[in-house]
Amino acid sequence: MSNKHDQTSDSGDSLVYQIRLKGYLDSQWTDWFGGLTITLEENGETLLTGPVVDQAALYGLLKKVRDLGMPLISVNPLNKQEKEPRREDEQS
Q: Domain 15-78 carries which CATH code?
């Protein structure tokens, strides 16, 4: 068993996540989701994007999604250089 650290750095930097949901969320939910940016996509999906301090905070956000009853499509950490997560169907 390895003793790996999580994806956040030891300097206290938050990792940016993008959480994709099926359906639309109004911008009124921004505060409830800890200030994450809510983006509505044309395909009927909502993106929640923003920094998450640690795994416990991430699980708390996912619990809120569950409590809303919205289908969860994906959860992706973003690299610092990325604005969008890389999709598996994209080719370089």
A: 3.30.70
